[in-house]
Design brief:
The chain is built from ten helices and nine strands. Strand 2 and strand 3 form a beta hairpin. It has two domains: 4-39; 66-309, D-amino Acid Aminotransferase, Chain A, domain 1. It has helices spanning 4-25, 29-39, 42-54, 66-76, 81-86, 91-98, 148-160, 163-167, 252-261, 301-309, and strands spanning 107-111, 126-130, 137-140, 179-183, 190-197, 200-210, 219-227, 269-277, 280-287.
Length: 317
């Protein structure tokens, strides 16, 4: 046993060394860069990232393109409903209120942290997600063989991430973080991202999910953008793609109707992302800034075409 004085000496040595270590740590360029970005004002960060990603500065005084207007919204469009719409847990209530609860993927459970998950209450197949970000997916195909500790570790790491800081997508900033379990609805799904401009769907971007054996976020491939008459446009983006023709869904008009119920003319832009399973429409999530707000179009004319459709509040058109 240490005497009180010995313990105090050891304690002070540890504190002193930790302070020295911390001072040294903050001299490392990678740490300085990370801390600097975290405390950088939103506008400065958006301008810097826009130039880094798209090779030029956006005009935020008179935004015209799709990317410029999305960047403007990151800084100036702070509608509180956006926070609930990006929250995968609260979104289910909004779906029930605006479109009908049958369009929400059924919720099995919700917990504050991954360690709180009650495994005995879960079915044989389900999907775990963090509610505050995009991409934290853990699929359980067979509970008996499911690695619970790996799932807890993965979700714990993802839950600690501040998704807002990644691209300064303001709606994610104040989401109260939770873990949700959803009903397992299948694999290799098509993701129909319905681009809503001031309350109306004008394009549907189709992505194909390729499920992974490890059950984590699937690999995604862009399959084209379709107009309201389901004509495939020439729009291409700088993402992995599959050059295929996607058949118009039998319940397409229902999907459009449901998507438009989820938004209104006061929301300049939002993507209502849907799945169609056994001819039933499900809303997976709502996305305000595709590509983090820096969508790279192979032909820049599409940046302007989409931008022309988006009417910002307080801007004279």
């Amino acid at each position: 046993m240490f005497a009180g004085k010995q313990f105090a000496n050891i304690y002070h040595v540890c504190i002193l060394n930790w302070r020295k270590f911390r001072r040294w740590l903050f001299t490392l360029p990678i740490i300085q860069k990370t801390v600097h970005k975290a405390y950088m004002p939103d506008k400065k960060f958006v301008l810097r990232e826009y130039k880094k990603r798209l090779g030029k500065l956006p005009d935020l005084d008179c935004p015209k393109s799709f990317n410029e207007k999305n960047s403007w919204r990151k800084i100036y469009d702070r509608n509180p409903i956006y926070t609930s719409m990006v929250d995968k847990y609260l979104l289910k209530g909004i779906i029930a209120e605006r479109a009908g609860e049958q369009y929400a993927i059924p919720l099995i459970g919700v917990w504050d942290t991954p360690k709180d998950i009650v495994w005995d209450n879960l079915p044989d197949q389900f999907v775990l997600k963090c509610n505050h970000e995009s991409g934290s997916v853990v699929v359980c195909r067979n509970l008996r063989d499911f690695d619970r500790q790996l799932a807890i570790a993965t979700l714990s790491w993802r839950q600690r991430r501040d998704y807002y800081l990644k691209h300064r997508e303001w709606p994610y900033k104040n989401v109260k973080r939770k873990i949700i379990a959803e009903e397992y609805v299948g694999e290799n799904l098509l993701d129909y991202k319905n681009y809503c401009f001031n309350g109306k769907v004008l394009y549907t971007f189709v992505w194909k999910n390729h499920s992974r054996k490890d059950g984590h976020k699937p690999d995604v491939y862009f399959c084209g953008a379709y107009d309201r008459q389901w004509n495939k446009t020439e729009l291409e983006i700088s993402q992995p793609s599959e050059n295929i023709i996607v058949e118009k869904p039998a319940c397409y008009e229902e999907m459009i109707s449901v998507s438009e119920k989820m938004t209104d003319e006061e929301i300049p832009f939002v993507s209502v992302d849907c799945y169609i399973i056994n001819n039933r429409v499900y809303i997976g999530e709502m996305t305000f800034f595709p590509g983090g707000g820096y969508r790279e179009f192979k032909d820049e004319k599409w940046d302007m075409i989409l931008g022309d459709e988006e009417k910002l509040p307080g801007i004279d058109y």
